[in-house]
Specification:
The complex is a heterodimer of chains A (about 90) and B (about 190). Helix content of chain A is about 50%, strand content about 15%. Chain A has about 90 residues and is α+β, with helices and mostly antiparallel strands. Chain A has a two-stranded antiparallel ribbon with strand order 1-2. In chain A, a hairpin with a 6-residue loop joins strand 1 and strand 2 (about 25-30). In chain A, helix 3 crosses helix 4. The longest helix of chain A is centred in the C-terminal third of the chain and has 19 residues, at about 70-85. Chain A is elongated and about 45 Å long. The two termini of chain A are about 25 Å apart. With about 190 residues, chain B is mostly helical. Helices cover about 70% and strands about 0% of the residues of chain B. Chain B has a two-stranded antiparallel ribbon with strand order 1-2. In chain B, a hairpin with a 7-residue loop joins strand 1 and strand 2 (about 50). The chains are: A alpha+beta (about 90), B mainly alpha (about 190). The interface of A and B includes residues 65, 68 and 70 of A.
Chain lengths: ~90, ~190
């Protein structure tokens, strides 16, 4: 999994360099990670599943074997985290 | 780990069951509690009340339960609207109804209880120690009530998805109002 926070001080990590596997070109800079990439693995899996289920919380609840309000609360938690990261 | 998980579902099954499913299971428990309660002389005379009485009729038993279920569901839903807007009525009604399931234990124990006359009990309070059924009922009432309130709290928490002090205050206020309204309706209608 892509590391997103500093193992020493827990601050958000930034992208220093990107490299082309084909021609070995390297792009250096100081880029922010996309908000979605900063989410935990679990939250990212939830979002993927949410999209695959066409945004249906009912289908998500059936897939995850949780009740509808529990799944809705999980989504609300992710929304709060995204809003926090966007600030 | 598995036992730990199962234990959690004893006081919070709503992570798994809510909505229509919870309402259906809840109504089965409520109907059984009412039917057994009628034979046990147990009255559900308030949203979170249960008392032993005498000569309980089916009408009395079931009407009280209908008032309790509707009051708890509707009042807690309205209280929830003060805390958050994005939740479903069916989740609140279903989970609140299922939260009443442990009352069936009091109904069952009530079958083996012979209720002493109040005057006799006041004259000789120690007679409860010679009435094991009544003693077990009294001892069981407290943990069952705590269990039901814990279930109702989790029903409210899962259904509204609210957090923090607002959620706790909303729950306490809602339950208090539900209890008062159900008591008033029972005294008027039954």
């Amino acid at each position: 999994m892509l590391p997103t926070s500093c193992p020493s001080c827990h601050a958000h990590l930034k992208v220093r360099s990107l490299k082309c596997e084909q021609c070995e070109t390297e792009v250096n800079g100081f880029y922010d990670l996309p908000v979605l990439a900063r989410l935990s693995d679990e939250d990212q899996q939830f979002i993927l599943s949410f999209v695959k289920n066409s945004g249906s919380l009912k289908d998500m609840a059936a897939e995850l074997k949780f009740s509808y309000p529990t799944v809705r609360n999980m989504l609300n938690e992710i929304i709060l985290t995204i809003e926090k990261y966007e600030k | 780990m598995k036992n730990k998980l199962n234990l959690r579902y004893i006081y919070n099954p709503f992570e798994k069951i809510a909505g229509w499913q919870a309402l259906l299971y809840g109504l089965v428990f409520v109907a059984l509690s009412g039917w057994i309660g009628k034979h046990a002389g147990l009255l559900f005379d308030g949203a979170i009340d249960a008392h032993l009485g005498k000569d309980v009729t089916y009408y009395q038993s079931f009407m009280e339960l209908v008032i309790d279920v509707v009051c708890a569901g509707v009042v807690m839903y309205l209280a929830g609207l003060f805390v958050t807007k994005s939740f479903r009525f069916i989740d609140m009604l279903g989970t609140m109804t299922l939260a009443r399931a442990p009352y069936i234990l009091l109904s069952l124990v009530g079958l083996f209880v012979s209720v002493p006359e109040t005057a006799e009990l006041l004259a000789n309070p120690y007679q409860i120690f010679t009435n094991p059924g009544f003693l077990v009922f009294i001892i069981l009432t407290f943990p069952v009530l705590v269990w039901i309130i814990a279930l109702m709290y989790n029903a409210w928490k899962v259904s509204t998805g609210a957090k923090g002090p607002k959620m706790i205050v909303g729950f306490i206020a809602g339950l208090f109002v539900a209890e008062v309204i159900s008591k008033i309706l029972i005294s008027i209608l039954i």
